[in-house]
């Protein structure tokens, strides 16, 4: 049986030990964007970025809206809501895909999840499915009133954990005319069973730990966090999955952002471990496109969800040849491949 320390080590996914030394790129961008090709200024006639904030259930939500080239507020544009990965923020891969889809003529929005990033909420880094799903509804609420937004042509795009939560949101939120995911990650399944079922034998033990953390919070004690284990490069190299190893490089080095962390409240597991992104997917009756790398060790999650989405006949699972999970976040040829599929999908369905 795995020890609690080993279980925590596995659940951490990736450490952030390199963040302090290598998270410098965000300082070189006025919008703190950390992806290749990121906007550095707004120019007439080109894709522009607009930092916005709005209230969602009393919390301040920080978001970026991207408008297409030659944007005219008096005209009507299709819209795409973009949900970011677990531990990610709007300045990373979600921003990249939002900007690239704005290149295609869409108004796009991506927001930091409540309790995370630059958005409000205490304690920090609560990571509960209900909140992440509500974030998606909230982005749709806000963008519906943005000048030029055609809410009759509203699409949804979820990346990694945001993909799983997008599937859950789209089950009931029929404002979304079509739904797409990139490298979908079923957060509840992984928090419950471990990645590729590597922690099934510690489920009850981890639920006990989460219950104790909740009790401690309720009694006014300190908030207990998990997922913030500090790992050396040597330890990272020994992690058993590509997602973890490459995730460290992406989040801890090449695309690091100070608001991005895998630390989350241990008590969140009470909600996470009873959640499954594939539950009731038959309620999705709109066009669905799922994109994943052919070499991604997370591919099984997209395949499981795709099989359960029986409510729509208009669905496709597209595998990017040769790509791993994290490589769909930034490797130009794989991002280009995903954007090509998304562009054709949304052009047809919106």
From TrEMBL:
One of its GO terms (molecular function) is hydrolase activity. Signal peptide: none annotated. Residues 58-213 form the Xaa-Pro dipeptidyl-peptidase-like domain. It comes from the Bacteria. InterPro entries: AB_hydrolase_fold, Polyketide_trans_af380, Xaa-Pro-like_dom. Keywords: Hydrolase. This is Alpha/beta hydrolase. The lineage of its organism: Bacteria, Pseudomonadati, Pseudomonadota, Gammaproteobacteria, Pseudomonadales.
């Amino acid at each position: 049986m795995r020890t609690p320390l080993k279980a925590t080590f596995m659940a951490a996914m990736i450490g952030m030990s390199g963040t302090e030394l290598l998270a410098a790129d965000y300082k070189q961008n006025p919008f703190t964007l950390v992806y290749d090709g990121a906007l550095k200024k707004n120019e007439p006639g080109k894709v522009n970025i607009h930092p916005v904030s709005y209230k969602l259930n009393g919390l301040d939500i920080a978001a970026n809206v991207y408008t297409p080239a030659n944007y005219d507020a008096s005209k009507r544009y299709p819209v795409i809501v973009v949900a970011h990965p677990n531990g990610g923020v709007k300045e990373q891969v979600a921003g990249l895909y939002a900007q690239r889809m704005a290149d295609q003529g869409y108004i796009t929005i991506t927001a930091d999840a409540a309790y995370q990033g630059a958005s409000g909420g205490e304690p920090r880094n609560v990571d509960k499915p209900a909140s992440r799903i509500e974030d998606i509804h909230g982005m749709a609420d806000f963008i519906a009133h943005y000048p030029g937004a055609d809410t009759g042509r509203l699409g949804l795009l979820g990346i990694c954990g945001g993909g799983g939560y997008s599937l859950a949101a789209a089950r009931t939120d029929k404002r979304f005319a079509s739904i797409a995911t990139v490298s979908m990650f079923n957060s509840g399944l992984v928090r419950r069973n471990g990645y590729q079922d590597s922690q099934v034998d510690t489920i009850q033990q981890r639920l006990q730990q989460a219950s104790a953390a909740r009790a401690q919070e309720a009694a006014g004690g300190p908030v207990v966090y998990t997922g913030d284990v500090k790992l050396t490069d040597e330890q990272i190299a020994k992690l058993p999955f590509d997602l973890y190893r490459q995730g460290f490089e992406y989040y801890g080095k090449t695309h690091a952002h100070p608001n991005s962390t895998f630390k989350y409240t241990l008590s969140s597991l009470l909600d996470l471990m009873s959640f499954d992104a594939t539950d009731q997917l038959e309620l999705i009756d709109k066009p669905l496109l799922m994109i994943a790398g052919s070499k991604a060790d997370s591919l099984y999650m997209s395949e499981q969800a795709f099989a359960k989405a029986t409510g729509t006949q208009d669905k496709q699972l597209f595998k990017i040849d040769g790509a791993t999970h994290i490589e769909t976040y930034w490797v130009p040829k794989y991002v280009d491949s995903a954007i090509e599929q998304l562009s054709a999908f949304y052009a047809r369905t919106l």
